[in-house]
Design a protein that fits this description.
The protein has a domain of 53 residues: Orthogonal Bundle (Arc Repressor Mutant, subunit A), CATH 1.10.10. It is 39% helix and 6% strand.
Length: 77
């Protein structure tokens, strides 16, 4: 399912990024994909998908848990 229409970011992309250790926070996700930097309507769904993906990581994984909205998300397209 597409989470961010503006930047074409899917739930699979978010989960894969977490599994590969590339993304541990919404800030990382925004930096890597641009998600949330246009209209921002995707942020709640992205935050939820990210939290679910992070919760499925093994307990030994270094989870940051920073699901706060980055300043970059306030930028317009």
């Amino acid at each position: 399912m597409i989470i961010c229409v503006c930047k074409a970011v899917s739930d699979k992309t978010i989960r894969r990024s977490v599994e590969q250790g590339e993304v541990m926070s919404l800030r990382d996700l925004t930096r890597d994909t641009g998600l949330g930097t246009c209209c921002g309507k995707c942020v709640p769904a992205a935050r939820s998908t990210l939290a679910q993906a992070l919760s499925r990581l093994p307990a030994s994984s270094p989870m940051h848990g920073d699901l706060a909205m980055p300043m970059a998300a306030q930028m317009s397209c």
